[in-house]
Design brief:
This protein is of the alpha/beta class. It has a single domain, classed as ATPase, nucleotide binding domain (Nucleotidyltransferase, domain 5, 2-Layer Sandwich), CATH 3.30.420.40. It contains 7 helices and 10 strands. A hairpin with a 2-residue loop joins strand 6 and strand 7. Helix 3 crosses helix 7. The radius of gyration is 19 Å and the shape is globular.
Length: 276
């Protein structure tokens, strides 16, 4: 793709729309980050500006997106969209007069070793595409995406997507607890910003403790079990809205965890770079 006009990447998730602006002519490509992990690949494209908005209220969503677009990319650069929420992506395509290139599994430069490749969430595959730019050559990687749903996926040493596990994220689990009981309060993402005590002294604190430390325990167990079946210790990459607050607790005993924000957006940009 000719990047002379820059690139607009749009990631339509289960509860939020995330936009990333990648400036023209490769200006958004970052130098390798300081890390203890060996990096032996081309740098990963990074957006210079991002926006994340809930798509629960479409009127508010479009007001925020419109203002952001006018500020950062008013000329209407090439746009690529990846979506796991068909209804919202259809509205976005209509707003953009169907000028966005909607990515599918067949567009991605990656082997997909699962039963139904076309049914895998495009966000999981784009995470793998992005990680293939920054993992060590010939070493597998585990990608943990802590969003509305939490995914823990394996990228093989040859770069193929091998599948993984899906479980509810902390806010989705909190909503389910509230909806499925008569008296438990509903918590939001802000309730998980601080590390809670394991012993909650109120109902809210008990819920926060259970969901926060339960998520960490579940992810650590999955990372351990996936790594146990790999011929080499996988590198561990974290992304998603909940990654920053949980990252320090999710490093394995052998490999540190690397937090890479905006991994799906970077994956979109990486795919766009390779398209004619």
């Amino acid at each position: 793709m000719n990047a002379s006009d820059g690139l607009l990447a749009i990631d339509v998730g289960s509860s939020r729309v995330k936009l990333g602006w990648f400036p023209p002519d490769g200006a958004c490509t970052s130098a390798p980050a300081s890390t203890s992990l060996p990096i032996a690949s081309t740098p990963l494209p990074q957006p210079t500006e991002t926006l994340a908005v809930s798509h629960a209220n479409q009127a508010t969503m479009w007001a925020e997106i419109g203002s952001w677009l006018q500020e950062f990319c008013p000329s209407g650069p090439p746009g690529f969209l990846a979506s796991v929420h068909p209804a919202t992506s259809a509205v976005i395509q209509e707003i953009f007069a169907n000028r966005l290139h909607a990515l599918a599994a067949k567009d991605l430069p990656i082997s997909i070793r699962v039963e139904h490749p076309d049914r895998v969430g495009i966000d999981r595959l784009l995470n793998a595409v992005a990680v293939n730019r920054i993992r060590a050559i010939n070493q597998p990687a585990i990608v943990v995406d802590l969003g509305t749903a939490c995914t823990v996926d394996l990228v093989a040493s040859d770069g193929a997507f091998e599948g993984g596990a899906i479980l509810p994220g902390v806010t989705l689990a909190a909503t389910a607890l509230h909806a499925g009981t008569a008296s438990l309060p509903e918590l939001g993402l802000g309730d998980f910003n601080d590390q809670p005590s394991a012993v909650g002294k109120s109902t809210q604190e008990a819920i926060t403790s259970g969901l926060y430390w339960g998520m960490i325990g579940a992810v650590r167990e999955l990372v351990t079990r996936i790594g146990r079946d790999c011929p080499q210790q996988p590198q561990l990459f974290l992304t998603g809205g909940g990654a920053a607050s949980l990252a320090e607790h999710l490093a394995s005993d052998v490999s540190p965890a690397r937090h890479v924000p905006n991994l799906v957006l970077s994956g979109i940009a990486a795919v766009a770079e390779e398209m004619p």
